[in-house]
Amino acid sequence: MINIIWLAMIVIGFCFAAVKGNIEVVTQSAFDGAATGVTVCFGLISVLVFWMGMMKIAEDAGLLTKIAKLLGPVVGYLFPDVPKNHPAMGYILSNMSANLLGLGNAATPMGIKAMQQLQELNPDKQVASPAMCTLLALNTASITLIPTTLIAIRLNYHSAHPAEIVGTTLVATAIATMAAIILDRYYRSRVPRTPMGRPKRKQPPQAETSVKG
């Protein structure tokens, strides 16, 4: 669906440019946009590499383990239907830790791994389980202590104070996370609770009985 929307926007843009006689403006904008995208990517790489390196140092130093232990009770409350020692828990904790540091690129692989593990526990493979919905909500609205990617973009565009958004981002993401948790709890309360990984057993068909007169 997203691909159709983007294609429609591009086609409509070209059609309007052709009608207005500004097709060369569209062509120039396309090349300028490509050049800007490459420039921004190079600016992001240096900052992301730095923070991912810091994350690796924190992992080797045991800091991520301490963060995971600190988040353990919270994750256990948010994902009551996931066994405590299941591999999904480790990926969920890694995803949340990376999001706390604003490392969305590092959090994404952990989120995908967590989804794969949660899918294995999902009794209905055609419908997302409550735990999968919770993970998606938290990953999208994750509270962020250091908005690394945004700071990198602001640095790339020569912002005088690139880190001044830290406080604002923290408040905004905290409100978004609380809203996500509240809505998640609300919708969970409306779904019948069944142990994850244990689909409802189908009742065997009752044998037909005939009454002889």
Describe this structure in words.
The protein is an all-alpha fold and 213 residues long. It is globular. The relative contact order is 0.09. The longest helix is centred in the first third of the chain and has 38 residues, at 23-60. It is built from eight helices and no strands. It has helices at residues 2-20, 23-60, 63-78, 87-100, 104-121, 130-140, 148-156, 166-189.
What brief labels describe this structure?
213 residues; disordered C terminus; single chain; mainly alpha
Cα radius of gyration in angstroms:
24 Å
Poorly predicted sequence stretches spanning 5 or more consecutive residues: 197-204, 207-213
Put simply, the count of helices is 8
- Could you state the order of secondary-structure elements as H and E? HHHHHHHH
How far apart the termini lie comes to 63 Å
Beta content: under 5%
Q: Please report the total strand number as a whole number.
A: 0
Choose one word for the global shape: globular
**Please, what is the average pLDDT?**
78
Helicity level, as a percent range?
55-70%
Q: Which class of secondary structure composition applies to the elements?
A: mainly alpha
Largest sheet: none
